[in-house]
Every structure is written in structure tokens, then in C-alpha cells.
Specification:
The chain is mainly α. Among the domains are: about 30 residues, no CATH class; about 60 residues, Orthogonal Bundle (Diphtheria Toxin Repressor, domain 2), CATH 1.10.60.20. The protein is built from six helices and two strands, in the order αααααβαβ. It has a two-stranded parallel ribbon. Helix 2 packs across helix 4 and helix 3 packs across helix 4.
């Protein structure tokens, strides 16, 4: 059988809009070079990721469904102002629990909608937690400041450290400790520590097969 030399056989060429790659058999057509890649659609579809010149920002995420951390924030002055007024007036009653503050606000205030009430309650709870760490701008605690001054200026009639009249009540071990530390000058009276009585033991019922 004679072998045919097909090296010099010319291959027919067809004009294809996709270039030379389109002439190959079973080859997928090459997309035009003007269209952007599919990955860039995710960036360009969100105007937040486009700069002034139309190019996507380099440091911005490509995921358009990524959370922008805007959920749960209070941006209206109505909610913030109402929360500050409530804290100034009803600070002793408010707590760090959202549901408790929600019921308190229902009692002391008139809020037109449940949604606004929940927003005020949430921001009030947030401010109460911040107050525990330090002062908050825009909130003056007149009641709290007066109570703090009253506690600082309080002088008891009989000092708790004055043991001249009654003396300290200690147990035997504490008296031995004071003697070992050379504090015999302190007047103490030894008392027996109260031992809590144990409740009477319940009788065990004789249940057949229970001890197995």
C-alpha cells in the first residue's frame, strides 16, 4: 500500500470574524476583545466600587453582596435625641437589658410606632452600656451626680471601725491569728460560729431491684 505524502497539501482558509482560532474544527468561538470579562461585571454593576474616572477601585472588594456593616445602626437624630432624654429623666429605672427597657419606654413615653420604639430601646440600651465604661457626650446625669455627691459627703453616726463600746466578734481561729501578729491590744470577743443544722435524712424506700 502506497503512503500518501500530504505535507504539501494546502488547507482551505475561511474568513472568520473570530480570527484563526475560528477555523479549527470543533473549536469554541473567541469572544470579541471589546467586551469586559464576566468577573468585571460584579465590580462595575455596583456604583460604590467605581472611581471618578470610571475604573474600579483597587482596594474595594469584588463581591457586590458583601455586607457594608450598615445594618443595625441608628442614623436619625429623632431616635438619638429621644434616647438621651429618656436616660436623663429615667436613668435609675433603665437597665442593660433591651426587653426591660422596651417595657419601661412603653410606660413612660408615647411612641407612634412599634418599630420606632424598638429603635429607641436598642439605642438606649447601647448608651447605657457605654455609660458603664465612662461619660457619654451629650448626656448629663444630674441624678447620678447628686447621688454620688451625697454618698461622698455621708458621715455615719457611729463608725464601723470604732470597737471601744462593743468590741469585735471573732471566732477562736481569728483570735489566735491576732495573737500571732501581736495585736493583743484589740478588744475582741470570741463567739462560736453558727453551724447550720443538716436536714434529717430521708428514709430510703425499699424498692425491689433498685440497688442492682
Amino acid at each position: 500500500m502506497r503512503k500518501v505524502d500530504d505535507t504539501n497539501v494546502a488547507t482551505p482558509k475561511f474568513d472568520s470574524p473570530y480570527g484563526e482560532r475560528g477555523n479549527r474544527l470543533y473549536s469554541s468561538p473567541k469572544p470579541p476583545r471589546d467586551l469586559p470579562s464576566p468577573s468585571s461585571f460584579c465590580i462595575l454593576s455596583n456604583p460604590r466600587h467605581i472611581q471618578q474616572d470610571g475604573e474600579p477601585a483597587a482596594n474595594e472588594p469584588t463581591d457586590v453582596f458583601a455586607d457594608d456593616n450598615s445594618q443595625g445602626r441608628v442614623r436619625t437624630k429623632t431616635t438619638k435625641r429621644a434616647s438621651r432624654v429618656l436616660i436623663e429623666k429615667y436613668y435609675p429605672r433603665l437597665t442593660l437589658d433591651f426587653h426591660t427597657n422596651k417595657r419601661i419606654i412603653d410606660e413612660v413615653a408615647v411612641v407612634p410606632s412599634k418599630r420606632l420604639r424598638n429603635k429607641i430601646s436598642g439605642f438606649t440600651t447601647h448608651l447605657m452600656k457605654r455609660i458603664q465604661k465612662g461619660p457619654v457626650r451629650g448626656i448629663s446625669f444630674k441624678l447620678q451626680e447628686e447621688e454620688r455627691e451625697r454618698k461622698d459627703n455621708y458621715v455615719p453616726e457611729v463608725s464601723a471601725l470604732d470597737t471601744s463600746a462593743t468590741g469585735l466578734e471573732v471566732d477562736a481561729e481569728t483570735k489566735e491569728l491576732l495573737h500571732a501578729l501581736n495585736f493583743d491590744t484589740i478588744q475582741v470577743s470570741v463567739i462560736q460560729p453558727a453551724i447550720p443544722e443538716r436536714a434529717p435524712r430521708r428514709e430510703r424506700r425499699n424498692v425491689p431491684g433498685a440497688g442492682r
